[in-house]
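Handout, tutorial session.
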Amino acid sequence: MNNQRNLILLSLVTGIVLMLAKFLAYFITNSNAIFTDALESIVNVAASSFAFYSIYLSSVPRDENHPYGHGKIEFFSVFVEGGLIFLAGSFIIVKAVYNIFYPSDLENILEGIGIIAITGIVNYALGAFLLKKSKKLDSLTLMADGKHLITDAYSTLGLLLGLLLLYFTGIRFIDTLLSLVLGVFIIYNGYKLLRKSVGGLMDESDAKIVEDVVEILQLNRKDAWIDVHNLRVQRYGTELHLDCHVTLPNYFDLNQVHSEVSEIDRLINENVTLKTEFFIHADPCLPKCCHYCSVQNCPIRSEPKTIDIDWSKELLVKNRKHFEYTKPN
């Protein structure tokens, strides 16, 4: 967690320096397009400030009022960042439309291009670094901040190309057109972050995590695990909460059931990158399960096994035993 805080602090300090540089470029050029880039930098600083706090809060241990921990704050952090980006893009479009009717004189374009080019390079390098670290640390906050910085770098590249075209052609409307295009691009990226955060806050299932868990279970399944169903995943920051039902032979005693449940818990925690809390409900098998059950020398088998079932995400997330979707040959 200290690593995450240090990385966000680095992003925050860098964002402040780059914001000042972009506003300097705006003041010496009076370019509406450069002002657009500078305005987005304010969002970078505000988002990094909140991200710094969210990483601190997500590391606070569970308490009586927050039995699942404080990890959800990371989704709220992404929501704030996406909302700020969306608002910035909207303001940029409004100002660009204003400049269509009230254009401003441009000066010192080459000097402004030089300053903006440096900020774009720094933003891209820092964003790529944060994305790499976010995968290693499984941090949504670092991921959102890294994607935002890389998006900012791409928009800066488009801005630079447009400013160069403006410099060589002298067509001033290019400056306003750039602001409009960048504003729409920024709003779209803000929407994507908002969509991701709302999905997390609403406990939308993470398809990739579910697929990873199903693959682990499929590759390591034991004969006694007759089927797995009602598999659900919730994410709380850097922790996962999973629950499912596992069908076991109905003649297993409590010690055997506990052993199988513990084995599944251990298997998942050893093979996923996030700390995982696994709640498993054990179901007894029924005669209808026999046609896909692989238990050898079963003392209560009512019919031979006639079918093999490959576990898939679509099958395991359903809240029914597998005999309701398969029929014996």
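The second record follows below. Compare its token runs with those of the first.
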Amino acid sequence: MELRHLKYFLAVAEELNFTKAAEKLFISQPPLSRQIIELENEIQAKLFIRNNKKVELTEAGKYFEKEVLALFQNLERATLKTKKIAENASGDFRIAYISSIYSSNISELIKHLKEQFPYVNFKLFEVSTTKQIDALEQGKIELGIIRSPIKSPRIKSQLWFQDGFSVVYNKSTIQLKSEEEIPNLKDETFVFFNKDYAPHYHEVLLELCAFYGFTPKVVHESNNINSIVQLVKNGLGISIVPSNIAKNNPDPEIGFIELKKVNLFTDVSLITSKEDDSEITKSAVDFLLDFSK
């Protein structure tokens, strides 16, 4: 049995039409039929019911299709992992992060990795949490930095740090001196993350406002934390952002009030593939974890 037999079988199983499957495979129909017959003879099982009107999978064929699909998925993962092992000294290493956690730590990480692995091309991508998880499962990134819990059997997650929240406002338009004055913001315009882009984070912001006794009047939305802070700076509203943003933003035109009374935090986590045991990944994770100590 050869891989081509299995590829031909999957094409026919998907199309349930030998003519269409042959066109998809760029071969003529007679050779395709012969390959399927060879496969059936080898495994000693009839895989298709053929007549003049239609082609159907037998029960054995349905089972075989499921197993062959799983086989090709495992083969693809093995191929990707082999490629990553081969690229341990060269190639690309892709790191994704969400906009709300970018800091000098990530820049220092790239410098550290370049010193250790000078022939590797390190790439940074700003990507939402949901898309990071999909990209990591598909082998499109090697390391992700996210701000929300995940559930995936293929991904290993390690807590980097816990982050609190702070109100951010324009000092020239809003007078805010302490956390006790937060309830007075109930009539102000708010700038939030888009609900569809970051649903978990959006819900947390609503919980925070509810704790202080009001429902925010959300007028402007953005998918990028830097855009949110810029909108606040331009006087278009106020917002609630992770306290990490306040620590990394020295702009004198905007102010931050940390919300210490409410016991709400977000976990910032490092995510990697459970199958990834490369030295580069280990070095990257260890470097970032050292910063959180």
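Points raised in discussion: The domain at 90-162+267-291 is CATH 3.40.190.10 (D-Maltodextrin-Binding Protein; domain 2).
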